[in-house]
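In the laboratory, one determines a bound structure by crystallizing the protein with its ligand and collecting diffraction data. In a computational setting the workflow is compressed into a single prediction: the sequence and the ligand go in, and a structural description comes out. We illustrate the idea with fe (ii) ion.
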Amino acid sequence: MQLSQSENKGGLGHILFVDDEINILKSLRRAFMQANLNLFIASNPEEAFDVLRQDSIDLIVSDYKMPGMNGLQFLQEIKNKYPSIIRVMLSGYVDNATVLKALTSGLVTTFFSKPWDNKVLIAKINHLLQLKKRLNNKYLLELFHSIQHLPSIPTLYQEFLDAIHREANYKELAGIVNKDVSIATEILRISNSAYFGGGRTASVEQAIMILGINIVKDIVITLSLFKDKPLSGIQYHYFNQVLKHSSLVNFYMPKVYKILFEKPLNTQFTSVGITHDIGKIILLQYFPERYNAILQHQKQEEGMGFYESEIALGYRYSTHTEIGAYLLDLWNFPQVSIEAALFHHSPEKGGLLYPDTLMALLLTNAFVNGKWNDEDDAADAFQATGYQVDDKELRESIIKIRKELSRERDYQLGQSVTGGR
Ligand SMILES: [Fe+2]
Ligand SMILES: [Fe+2]
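The predicted complex, in structure-token form:
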């Protein structure tokens, strides 16, 4: 059933609501009347599939509890049959563990609970549609068309992910990592490096316990990507720089989050630092000339960052942020990782699903770049024992960076942040 299409022609997208309660559908219809969207509704999955056969839909909002098939089973079918449709759940009945699993496996982009706030729901749906548009821009698609195949999700990573989802134990996870000697070695090296404070271990199983499954998971993808296409000497050097930068950002991010919001970062989000710059690794491997040109330009203009240099060279719509976010989206990474990759240099003013996490990442990134902007510095910091920044210094730096960024960007960074201390 389609609603109010005529009033809303030319809108941001086509969205389909699926809910077995007619009153819910009615109030959604009222709420979305003014939004610049084309609405479709269905009162069960079967009806929804009818709509999908006739119209192209950009985003589906589904209830969880429905007769016949639950919302997750329905969205799983949508994912199989129409992988490009954005999947959102709106429900009052799901337990936390189920929600987290659906979010981290990429089955559901975001979850809203009933009763919902119309303004928030509309803003976030608009944000998701805009994000999709931004990632489907012609510059980015042209860039990807110019290579023979898109970097695919590495097999070892997929295997690791499947094991996490069936809740395999550490021993089993270690077994998968150990299939690739160089990845296993790197994970041992990182867990042994002093800054994780883990002490020495020669067991991958123990290293996974020290680092945490989420972090290992993202190290596995970063490293297996790199194996996909071997790098030359200088490229390898740059690759290491990105890896070290990302590891430092990932290490400090939970601390910065705590300073900003006085509560711990969601443990499901503790590895977004590892993947935030994954677009740089893709650039390095698939577009090395572009990567070099960006670095050259950066060197000529003193104090210029990598991202600013990309913009200056005319790559505004296909910077490492879009490239990374596009692939993370393609590989079904959770929305928080996609937002982190896409917006860590250019935060949006509204609509973000994870504004606090993003702000912590933005400030941590600036902090790490300011502290170890020299590449060899960063390498030393990564290896050495005495480089840890104490909490007081970190707090002061973060407050300072936040002030500078707010001024520069005319962007109210963190209104919920307790200022001045
Ligand atoms: Fe970046
Ligand atoms: Fe970064």
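The domain at 2-135 is CATH 3.40.50.2300 (Rossmann fold). Keep in mind that any predicted model is a hypothesis to be tested, not a measurement.
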